[in-house]
């Protein structure tokens, strides 16, 4: 039987390769976590329009700190830098090249783990 199925505990092995705990993986896959991510994506979609206005303000490209100052001074809106960077990387596509590579690798590991659960 071991020869027929060399990786009986696929989730355990893949989580070990990815450096993620099994409980963290299952928490990520839980329904509450999925609903939270959907809600966060909807909120980020709403923030995207305001960030684009601040990003294009006066025709100059800006980083997260300049966008934060523009939002506070011109629009009276306060967001923290983490949120601004996350929305910029997701929707405005001004992400760092190395960060894109890291996201690409993590996404493919996630696909590998989720496809093994389906089988």
Q: Give the number of helices.
A: 6
Could you give the count of β-strands? 0
Write the element-wise H/E pattern from the N-terminal end onward: HHHHHH
Shape estimate: elongated
- Low-confidence segments: none
Q: What is the straight-line distance between the termini? A: 17 Å
Mean pLDDT: 80
What does this structure look like?
With 119 residues, the protein is an all-alpha fold. The chain has one domain (10-118). Helix content is 74%, strand content 0%.
SSE map:
Layout: H1 10-18, H2 22-29, H3 31-55, H4 64-75, H5 81-92, H6 97-118
Provide a concise account of the structure shown:
The chain is built from six helices and no strands. The protein has helices at about 10-20, 20-30, 30-55, 65-75, 80-90, 95-119. The longest helix is centred in the middle third of the chain and has 25 residues, at about 30-55.
List keywords for this structure.
single chain, 119 residues, mainly alpha, elongated
